[in-house]
């Protein structure tokens, strides 16, 4: 199963809060695919700056902004980080900001969408400050199940369920769909927009034959570790470090291990032989987490593994300081698809990401090369040589939206979420998704000649 954030603020309520913009080349490729320079890095950068209220690790370097709605702060708890950053310098992974105008390989302490160690979701950033505006109404406990169109294919309203009771609301100007990668595609298909044969099979009247649900791309993740350390205090061990003092410190000051999601402290961009050095095809989320008693259970849940795989693998090392990393394929070549099992809006979509299915096998080769680089970082550097006690334990939808977010063949309907990415960016998708929302807002204002306070 793929997790989804079903609530005000969407998946920013359940993600790991890592703030990364992606690579400038990601957006220049979007501009090339769409034929629209408004998607180029030069243009979208201003939306990233607009949304930032940046107090992160790289505050003051000239590449960030303050005063926007989204609070960004640095990691507050990172035991052993100095050893890894020093080791990175040894092998050509210097400590650098990944969110500048040039992104070359390196490691950075993580910036989080947090305020004083607490989650700062898009609900806190955008919705909560505007809840009392007279032109803004939230219908809680509601689920949209269908978009309604007139004879000219103008979107004129939606059917939705509120506490399970069917209701309808109309639209005078536009409908903006922002239900996420899976939710938006599912709702379009339920409304008759999608692959014609598939819709007919489900008994849904096809209105537009578009490749909705195709071009599904995902950042496949693999666990690498644990790298066992012989220096006490170089990682987080729950049994040792999570006492009442740490809990009170978090409640009062927002500091300590509870402020660090999943123990993530550093973020690395890695360029393998298969990409341009300035366009990383891998990224690492580096966890300074020792082998505490529940780590195996946590990883089994995270990766949805069976048979207590991680629990059995890590059991011999419980109680030891360690680090591990989640290696993520940033520029996947493999492309999957999403389909519906039936016409019931409550049914989960059928997802076939087709991991590692690219004809040349480049995705797998890229991941293997990344693991070799990580082994070199932890096992063949002097900075970590003194603390490494043992080596690695031996145990979107192109063609369905135009460049102004509009769904092709319709009027008055836009999509503003990660489902419109023609190619996935090489970083966590939270910040790019927020940028897409800012981008769409400008398009809407331009269309209707609105000023900021008229939205």
UniProtKB/TrEMBL annotation:
PANTHER family attached to this UniProt entry: CHOLINE DEHYDROGENASE, MITOCHONDRIAL, GLUCOSE-METHANOL-CHOLINE GMC OXIDOREDUCTASE
Protein name: Glucose-methanol-choline oxidoreductase N-terminal domain-containing protein
InterPro entries reported for this sequence: FAD/NAD-bd_sf, GMC_OxRdtase, GMC_OxRdtase_N, GMC_OxRtase_C
Glucose-methanol-choline oxidoreductase N-terminal domain: residues covered: 5-28
The organism's place on the tree of life at top rank: Eukaryota
Pfam families xrefs: GMC_oxred_C, GMC_oxred_N
Binding site for FAD: 144
GO molecular function, one term: flavin adenine dinucleotide binding
Obligatory cofactor(s): FAD
Similarity annotation: Belongs to the GMC oxidoreductase family.
PROSITE patterns: GMC_OXRED_1 (PS00623)
Keywords: FAD, Flavoprotein
UniProt lineage: Eukaryota, Metazoa, Ecdysozoa, Arthropoda, Hexapoda
